[in-house]
Amino acid sequence: MTDHPVINDSENIMETVTERQTKPALLRGWRRTCPRCGRGRLFERRLSVAHNCEASGLDLSVQRADDGPAYLTIVIVGHIVVPLMVPLYRLWDLHPGVMATGLSVLAVALSLYLLPRIKGAMIGLQWARHLHGF
User: Fold this and answer.
1) Nearest one of 41, 37, 39, 19 to 120, comparing CA atoms
2) Kind and range of the H or E run holding 22
């Protein structure tokens, strides 16, 4: 870890900001654990971020994941599901209603799996890069 001096404009003082490793923070967030320690839970419920980490005390209320995880989830799921349409149709000649139902179930399942993990990874990235008050 490297220390970099940073000027805090609001108070006009110099403070030292410790460089945090991004990859471990992203992986901890993907696992839905605290980006600092990797032990505390990141979420209270499915997508509700905890106010503080119960293990390290990190204030998680400053996170600003907003719509980013949803957009990334849509892009990833779309890039998985859409290319399956033509091969499935040509291979099994499925009725369009059956294919739409099957691919819809797949899209929902992928979204439910990916969304909390992507949100956790995004919070981990924010913590690692000192964004939004971390």
Assistant:
1) 41
2) helix 22-30
Look at the block and give the residue holding tokens 């989830």: 73
CB atoms within 10 A of CB 24: 14
Q: With a cut of 90, say whether residue 7 has pLDDT above it.
A: no
Can you give the pTM of this predicted structure?
Answer: 0.81
Token reading at 29: 């967030």
Which residues share a beta bridge with 21?
Answer: none
Confidence grade of residue 3 (pLDDT, cut at 50, 70, 90): low
What values do phi and psi take at 72, rounded to 5? -65, -40
Phi, psi for 99 (deg, rounded to 5): -65, -40
Distances (CA, A) of 18 to 23, 26, 49: 15, 17, 24
**pLDDT tens digits for range 105-132:** 999 999 999 999 999 999 999 999 998 7
Contact (CB, 8 A) for 106 and 113: no
- The answer to whether 42 touches 25, Cβ cutoff 8 Å, is no
